[in-house]
Amino acid sequence: MSRRTRGAPAAPGPSRPTVSVCRGCCCGTPKIPGVDHAGQLARLRTSLDGCATVRAVECLDACEHGNVIVVQPSAEGRRAGGRPVWLGLVNDPDALADITTWVQDGGPGAADPPAILELYVFTPSRRVREGLEGGGRG
Question: DSSP readout, the chain?
């Protein structure tokens, strides 16, 4: 007979970072030309499958920084001091590759981002930040 208690919940799986990709009024639209918006989202989903949750969200109200991606830490990353990182002007494949590599390594609190990503980091208003942490607008 097993020592495991019947009906006991299974051990929780590892937590994962969450990558929120703005796809609202400006981001992900022809208003930002020269970007394969659908391809960008598909590449993130494929590259991060199994190591992060990737979600498209409605307008994050930071249109001047479009395309916006927010990388939220895993539970472990948050315990280590990681906080959501807002990245703007993510309009080229190299930036997307750097974000992908960082998230694969663990993301905020678990791994240092590539130095080049400092060029993309911005701080949104508190109202906007709280909207995302509360589930976003979408």
Answer: --SSPTTPPPPPPPP--EEEEE-SSSTTSTTSTT--HHHHHHHHHHHTTTT-EEEEES--S-GGG-S-EEEEPPHHHHHTT---EEE----SHHHHHHHHHHHHTT-TTTSPPPGGGGGTB----HHHHHHHHTT---
